Amino acid sequence: MNDKSEEFEEYEQAAPRIAERPLELEPEEEVEDEGVDDEPEKEEPEAKRTVFDIPDAAPGGLPPWVLVPDGFRFPRGKSLIFTRFKSSWTDTPWKGEPIIDPKTGKPYVEHRPDGSEKVILWRQCVCWQLSVGDKRLAIGRSMGDFQRAADEMTRQMIRIADGNRIDWTEGGYVEVFWNEIGERCRGLLNRIFNRLHVLDVESTADFLQNCIEVRSSNS
Q1: Where in the sequence is the domain holding 103, given as residue range(s)?
Q2: pTM for the predicted model, two decimal places
Q3: 120 in any annotated domain
Q4: Is 183 exposed, middle or buried (0-12, 13-18, 19+ CB in 10 A)?
């Protein structure tokens, strides 16, 4: 990524994209019709969120600020996580892109004590859950190091970074992104990984109480 400060005037004059964009999805697999369940689903009481609960997946298109490579197709049936970090949180605060505020149509700014404004730069990435193959690749890169395996699996869930498609057959940009965002933002991604791949307390309790049957084989 390059410092965009010299190009900002041209960027500001560009028409901002405020509306959500449609998701381009992979072709849908044909499935047999198993009939329709006419019984309405019971509404569950809304659970209290903890400080670091990921929002529930909602229908809709791409957030207006997300950078996606041309022709990129998203897999079906996944919770797509669109994440952005203020560049000031990273180890390279001078790198990043402005993001348009949909309320004003102008880039987000921070207000300085002297009354001036500074355009906020952002880093971003798109993630979703690991497949069995993803996990195998990540563990292979860790070379038996348990501590490294945790980071490798988090990195494996990153599919797009700063608008760049992540291709593990070539390495490349993910190494740059992972290094430049710093440990604070890497820690946030590690926490997102845990939330995506581990059941929450309520679901785990439901599993243990209602989804296990135990029998004794003693005569």
Answers
A1: 84-198
A2: 0.75
A3: yes
A4: exposed
Other beta carbons within 10 Å of 134: 16
Amino acid at 72: F
Which residues have CB under 8 Å from 60's CB, separation 6+?
20
Q: How far is CA 130 from CA 71, 102, 141, 218, in A?
A: 22, 32, 15, 40
Q: Does residue 167 lie in a domain region?
A: yes
Cα gap 138→151, rounded to integer Å:
9
Q: Identify the three-state secondary structure at position 13.
A: helix
* Cα–Cα distance for residue pair 82/59, rounded to 1 Å: 13
Written as tens digits, the pLDDT of the chain (219 aa) is 555 555 555 545 554 556 677 888 888 777 665 555 555 555 655 555 555 678 888 888 899 999 999 999 999 989 999 999 999 999 999 999 999 998 889 999 999 899 899 999 999 999 999 999 999 999 999 998 888 999 999 999 999 999 999 987 666 899 999 999 999 999 999 999 999 999 988 999 999 999 999 998 887
The number of folded domains in the chain is 1
Q: Is residue 143 in some structural domain?
A: yes
Tell me if 9 is assigned to some domain: no
